[in-house]
Automatic annotation (TrEMBL):
Required cofactor(s): pyridoxal 5'-phosphate
Pathway named in the protein's UniProt entry: Amino-acid biosynthesis; L-arginine biosynthesis; N(2)-acetyl-L-ornithine from L-glutamate: step 4/4
Gene coding for it: astC
CC cofactor note: Binds 1 pyridoxal phosphate per subunit.
Keyword Cytoplasm included in the entry's annotation: yes
Name by which UniProt lists this protein: Acetylornithine aminotransferase
Catalytic activities: N(2)-acetyl-L-ornithine + 2-oxoglutarate = N-acetyl-L-glutamate 5-semialdehyde + L-glutamate
Gene Ontology CC: one annotated term: cytoplasm
PANTHER family noted in UniProt: AMINOTRANSFERASE CLASS III (PTHR11986), SUCCINYLORNITHINE TRANSAMINASE (PTHR11986:SF113)
Length: 402
């Protein structure tokens, strides 16, 4: 139990009201379990929004942070540092990429990707070719540029005008993409699995067709793997599961298992357009973050962890399907790997938050996506007994609620 003098009311007193956090304040965690200020225990099926891929207080990740903390924390980008170079090497050796750029958040990685796409097009095609095609329901971050590219207009309300040169097509509909292409198009950006948009996986054929469209029209294909990357689908990155290689890929969230870091990955010929001074970040490539991220990747990118993802996915999806059939709570169950969504059926979809609150009361953390979808993104290595216990708790709570 915490002896802290701060509580949920403190948030309303001192924090800008951009969030509406629940009453529970977690103060410690281990593995897939966390404890709040009152000592109550919860099983974490949310993963800090698909971030804590290895769970809480993982000893290997903590050791990497502690080892680096005793060496050097920050040097800025006036100089490079060993952890950044080692992380860059690892990513280039284990993905399609030949070059890496490090930042601090998914939004920053996407901002860099969109800027690079425009700069590359400017270098090779001149001024007029700058438009980016994205998809309805997509989410790419909260900067003004990334919000404009994202396919959820509500996030631009009150902030217009957003940056120009963005078009939106229909997710999983290649024909709608072709209708948007013009001599002004430079790139297409897609999430292999839309997270915030309701846990909607891309069809395999759809991503293959996007690759063909880009090749035929000289466009860059950008994969936003901020939420679905780093083992979430059972491969290190989702593009490896889809067997479709992008030109640029962004990764964040689970990359640091909770320590802020992101990366933009690309080929050398494309990276060449980011010459000295064209883009930058003070904290990007921070030694602490890079040391942690490399250890996270080394731990996730193992047969034990990656092969365990589909086994846990099967248990979770079987349970969700059974609940849907028995109670009528869900009208659709979907996802890839351990990024799963259960869309509530009417009339339950009118009060999604009630199901999240009931889960919390039962000692389980879950998420919402797309307004009416219950989202699950547990640690990739969640012990099966913990997963089974969490589902037992949810079943009792949600049956009582329905």
């Amino acid at each position: 139990m915490s002896n802290s003098s701060v509580n949920r009311a403190t948030f309303d007193e001192v924090m800008v009201p951009t969030y509406a956090p629940g009453d529970v304040i977690p103060v410690s965690g281990e593995g897939a379990r966390v404890w709040d200020q009152e000592g109550n225990e919860y099983i974490d099926l949310a993963g800090g929004i698909a971030v804590t891929a290895l769970g809480h207080s993982h000893p290997g990740v903590m050791a990497a942070l502690q080892e680096q903390a005793a060496k050097i924390w920050h040097v800025s980008n006036v100089m490079t540092n060993e952890p950044a170079l080692q992380l860059g090497q690892y990513l280039c050796e284990n993905t399609f990429a030949e070059k890496a750029f490090f930042a601090n958040s998914g939004a920053e990685a996407n901002e860099a990707a969109f800027k690079l796409a425009r700069r590359y097009s400017w270098d090779h095609h001149g001024d007029g070719r700058h438009e980016i095609i994205a998809f309805d329901g997509s989410f790419h971050g909260r900067t003004l540029f990334t919000v404009a590219v994202g396919g959820q207009p509500k996030y631009l309300d009150g902030f217009r005008p957003g940056p120009e040169g963005v078009r939106h097509a229909t997710f999983n509909d290649a024909a709608s993409v072709k209708e948007q292409i013009s001599d002004r198009t430079c790139a297409i950006v897609v999430e292999p699995v839309q997270g915030e948009g309701g846990v909607r996986p891309a069809d395999y054929g759809f991503l293959r067709e996007l690759r063909r469209i880009c090749d035929d029209n000289g466009l860059l294909l950008i994969f936003d793997e901020v939420q679905c990357g780093v083992g979430r689908t059972g491969r290190l990155y989702a593009y490896q599961d889809y067997h479709v290689e992008p030109d640029i890929l962004t990764t964040a969230k689970a990359l640091g298992n909770g320590f802020p870091i992101s990366a933009m990955l690309t080929r050398a010929d494309i990276a060449a357009s980011f010459t000295v001074g064209t883009h930058g970040t003070t904290y990007g490539g921070n030694p602490l973050a890079c040391a942690v991220a490399r250890r996270v990747l080394e731990l996730v990118n193992t047969k034990e962890v990656l092969d365990g993802v589909p086994k846990r996915q099967q248990r979770l999806s079987d349970w969700l399907e059974a609940m849907a059939e028995e109670t009528g709570l869900f009208r659709d169950v979907r996802g890839r790997g351990l990024l799963m969504g259960a869309e509530l059926a009417a009339p339950y979809d009118e009060n999604t938050k009630a199901f999240v609150s009931a889960a919390l009361e039962a000692g389980v953390l879950v998420l919402v996506a797309g307004g009416t979808v219950l989202r699950f993104a547990p640690p990739l290595n969640i012990p099966m007994p913990d997963l089974n216990e969490a589902l037992d708790r949810l079943e009792a709570a949600w049956k009582a609620l329905s």
